[in-house]
């Protein structure tokens, strides 16, 4: 899995807000560029995927984003231990943070 960048922009906003990018991260399993543009009323409600140990490091091997309208992914290869970040009622995922070296080792979410 190769994550080039993670950008977030508040739902329904335009360029007056800045985005934050980071990366690239990832191994040599292949490069994927995928831009996800959310509809004005669309929000991310769940993030899930898998992790596994590679040469002593835990790495994210797959990632799927679920919105209130559709599912994006899976990105990467789903193998290893499953993880899931379910959003509580009336909240949405407002952003992401990660710990990474050569690969993404951990991915977290900010709720709003």
TrEMBL record:
Protein name: Jacalin-type lectin domain-containing protein
Lineage of the organism: Eukaryota, Viridiplantae, Streptophyta, Embryophyta, Tracheophyta
Keywords of this entry: Lectin
Annotated Jacalin-type lectin domain residues: 1-112
One Pfam assignment: Jacalin
MF GO annotations: carbohydrate binding
SUPFAM superfamilies given in the database record: Mannose-binding lectins (SSF51101)
Entries under PROSITE patterns matching the protein: JACALIN_LECTIN (PS51752)
Gene3D superfamilies: Jacalin-like lectin domain
């Amino acid at each position: 899995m190769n994550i080039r960048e993670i950008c977030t922009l508040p739902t329904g906003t335009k360029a007056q807000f800045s985005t934050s990018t980071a990366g690239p991260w990832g191994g040599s399993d292949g490069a994927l560029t995928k831009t996800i543009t959310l509809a004005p009323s669309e929000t991310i409600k769940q993030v899930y995927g898998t992790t596994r140990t590679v040469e002593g490091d835990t790495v994210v091997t797959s990632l799927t984003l679920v919105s209130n309208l559709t599912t994006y992914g899976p990105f990467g290869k789903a193998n290893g231990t499953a993880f899931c970040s379910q959003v509580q009622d009336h909240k949405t995922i407002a952003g992401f943070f990660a710990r990474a070296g050569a690969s993404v080792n951990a991915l977290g979410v900010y709720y709003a």
